[in-house]
Design goal:
The chain has 202 residues and is an all-beta fold. Helix content is 0%, strand content 50%. It is built from no helices and 18 strands. The protein has strands at 2-5, 9-14, 23-26, 38-42, 46-53, 56-63, 68-72, 86-94, 97-102, 107-110, 118-119, 129-137, 140-147, 153-158, 165-170, 181-183, 186-190, 196-199. It is elongated and about 50 Å long.
Length: 202
């Protein structure tokens, strides 16, 4: 978990649920400078997190014993224009891979190793589309998107082997509420106007 104190700044700590088993675990920036670690997602074998080191911003994994390893360090310049290029809301698991959209709409994938971490070919969203959140439904990634020009909210779908496809768009004044629920029929979500939608990714 991420925690901040005066001596170390915001860093990653490890705990087994006891006071004596709680300790600083990841401090690549000496002194009170923040890394700062940002947990993204976890599968049965490892968790993924974004952090900053003297060598640049990077993507890391932590195994079940808390051992941290860099899988993408430093991030390519064009993939890290913001302070946090990867967020947990834009990260998802599909099959045996972890996927991460950055704020520019580039899609990265990782199998937990440096050799298996790279940009997903054909996964990039159009230039004006900013991903907000991703939910996996029936083996497809449903992507909440905002168009940077029209400010319209849109729902897109992506799955391995195919490019992103727009399913539906909503007026700027009628954004999805983002209170989404996965049901047996698909992703259930409401609009600010009170309308209710469901999507199975088609």
């Amino acid at each position: 978990f991420a925690c901040q104190d005066m001596e170390h700044g915001r860093e990653m700590w490890l705990t087994d649920g006891t006071p004596e088993g709680t300790r600083l675990h990841f401090d690549p920036m000496p002194g009170p400078v923040n890394s700062p670690p940002h947990p993204l997602l976890a599968d049965k074998d490892r968790s993924y997190l974004f952090g900053k080191t003297p060598d640049g911003k990077g993507l890391f994994t932590a195994d079940r014993n808390g051992v941290l390893s860099p899988v993408l360090l430093p991030l390519p310049e064009d993939s890290s224009p913001s302070h946090y290029p990867f967020f947990s809301a834009r990260s998802f698991l599909l099959g045996n891979r972890a996927y991460f959209f950055n704020g520019e709409g580039d899609l990265w994938k990782s199998d937990g190793t440096p050799a298996g971490t790279n940009e997903e070919e054909g996964g990039r969203l159009p230039t004006t589309k900013t991903p907000v959140r991703v939910t996996v439904v029936s083996g497809r990634a449903l992507i909440d998107v905002v168009d940077s020009i029209t400010q319209a909210a849109e729902l897109w779908v992506w799955s391995p082997g195919s490019g992103p496809e727009k399913l539906i768009s909503f007026p700027h004044a009628d954004y999805p509420s983002f209170d989404e629920t996965e049901t047996s029929e698909g992703l259930l979500f409401g609009l600010r106007s009170g309308s209710l939608f469901v999507s199975d990714g088609t």
